[in-house]
Amino acid sequence: MSWMRGVTCQVGRWRAARAQWRAEMERFKAAQKEARRTGGKMPENPGPPPTGFALLPWLLMGMGAFSNLFQGKTPNPWIGGVGLFAFNSLYIYVTFRSFVKEKREADATRVALAAMAVITCGLAIGYGGSWLYFFPLLGLATGAVVRGPWLGKVGLGLTALAAAVSVFRAGWDAVNVAYGTFLSTMVTAAILSLSEAVRELRAAREELARRAVEEERLRFSRDLHDLLGHTLSVIVVKSEAARRLASRNLDAALTQITDIESVGRQALTEIREAVTGYREGSLATELDRARSALSAAAVEPVVVRSGTPLAPQTEALLGWVVREAVTNVVRHACATRCEITVDSTPEHVRLTIADNGSGEPVPSSTPPLPGIGGTGLKGLTERLAAAGGSLRAGPSPRGGFTVTAELPVEPSGLADAALLTVPRAG
What we know:
The chain folds into two domains: 181 residues, no CATH class; 147 residues, Histidine kinase-like ATPase, C-terminal domain (Heat Shock Protein 90, 2-Layer Sandwich), CATH 3.30.565. The protein contains 13 helices and five strands. A five-stranded mixed sheet has the order 1-2-3-5-4. Strand 4 and strand 5 form a beta hairpin. Helix 6 packs parallel to helix 8, helix 8 runs antiparallel to helix 9 and helix 12 runs antiparallel to helix 13. The chain is rod-shaped and about 120 Å long.
């Protein structure tokens, strides 16, 4: 039967919500234990998920009417019994649907709430006495369902209705029923709205934390690519040079090996800085390394720098461009000459790296390094775009390959882009 399937589905949802809460509690206990061990900030207790069970105990307010009905003090007990059963059934139906936004706003829930109001008025007008306390119960269900600007209007209307019926049946002494109806409506709506807001904020905070972890992972993988791509290329080039020189010029070969050791130690330092988030780039340092790497690869380096001094954030971004572009020249260009030009004005700076190569891979007895290339220029384009700049890369009209980076000297987003490039540990 359909109603049995509905009950089964509802029980399944309750069990799923309970299981989710238990999982959250396990994570909370683990985080609490870790905070005690490390002396960090204690996590917040997520608490059980709210369900309609929280509003069920209020049905005890109808025990007076049930007692009168059971003891035979109510006239026409069959009408009262059917009305009591219908009210309780609708109350349970409405309150359990009120904790799911889609179901709370459904027409079926509003129709059920309206039916509750009709039954409440009928029972209260017909019997009075303890049956008047169904108005506060109706207020609880109304506060659980109605949200937004309609809450005040519906709450005042329900309060006025409760006051009129109470005065009609029991005189002015029963006006407190209207007061209880107003309080039950507004307090229930306020508590449930606050609970929903807290859970939405917690979910948003967890989503922000997840995105922060993803961004940090992306930042680290991008920095690792840029660091190792350049360093490994230089090590490969110098290793091949040392192998070729070993048979005829041992001193020159030893010099290359010494350079390899220096490059390796520098790479270890840079990787540690990248892991901790404290790495800062320097354009002058990267230009010096570019000269050394190009010379070791038998590429003539030509570096021209002119214009005004640059801010550290700007130099850091341009340093990444120099590193990536020179790495590509060493690994892929098959060039004999590479020109690096830095031209800065008070408004903007332009960096150009141009080679005279063919763009074909450099012949080498060493197999290509897996997983190093292919993403550097794309990542640099994103970094410069975040700083209000641009990056263009492509074949030159006169042959070779050219990479051009342009940046405003004091862009509004430069600091943020630098943080994206080299975030600092908090």
